[in-house]
Amino acid sequence: MDGLDLSSAMEKLINFRHERNWEQFHTPKNLSMSISIESAELMEHFQWKNDREIQDLLQALEFESVKEEIADIASYLLLLTHDLGIDLNKAITEKVKKNEEKYPVEKCKGKHNKYTEL
Fold first, then answer.
1. Is 57 exposed, middle or buried, given 0-12, 13-18 or 19+ CB atoms closer than 10 A?
2. What is the pLDDT along the chain (118 residues), one digit of tens a residue?
3. What does each C-alpha distance from 112 to 4, 8, 106 come to in angstroms?
4. CA 116 to CA 37: how far, in whole Å?
5. CB neighbours (10 Å) of residue 70?
6. What is the residue-wise DSSP string for the chain?
7. Which domains does the chain possess?
8. How far apart (Å, rounded) are the C-alpha atoms in residues 4 and 7?
9. Which residues contact 87 (CB under 8 A, 6 or more apart)?
10. Pick from 31, 93, 108, 110: most CB atoms within 10 A?
11. Chain-centre distance of CA 49, in angstroms?
12. How far apart are CA 72 and CA 39, in angstroms?
């Protein structure tokens, strides 16, 4: 995979927002809060369910709602990165490099410990 290409989705989001004059509401504070709110709505689908119930959910009609919550999260994230001038692909790549240093394979493979506990 050469890179994350969400340019078509970004263009649609920007046009959708612009047509409705919603830029005024999409401040970094509001977009970041919306990401958190939509994340909580995603978590509600899995709350109190065991692994079997989650598998059933992923096969049921409710899965469409899960996809929609994920799309909401990604949409707000894309708008926020656009507005802040962040190259999401570059930011992710740089973060992976940092994590590779913090979590070398030989120390962490198969472990869930935080890097300070390795």
1. middle
2. 456 689 999 999 999 999 999 999 999 999 999 999 999 999 999 999 999 999 999 898 889 999 999 999 999 999 999 999 999 999 999 999 999 999 999 999 999 988 888 8
3. 27, 36, 13
4. 30
5. 13
6. ------HHHHHHHHHHHHHTT-GGG--HHHHHHHHHHHHHHHHHHHTT--HHHHHHHHHSTHHHHHHHHHHHHHHHHHHHHHHHT--HHHHHHHHHHHHHHHS-HHHHTT----GGG-
7. 8-86 (1.10.287.1080), 87-118 (no CATH)
8. 9
9. 81
10. 31
11. 22
12. 9
The model's pTM: 0.87
What residue type is assigned to position 118 of the chain? L
22: which 2 tokens?
A: 């919603």
Q: Which two tokens stand for residue 34?
A: 């919306």
Q: How is residue 43 written in tokens?
A: 């978590």
| Joined tokens for residue 81 | 């990165």
By the 10 Å C-beta count (0-12 exposed, 13-18 middle, 19+ buried), 42 is classed as middle
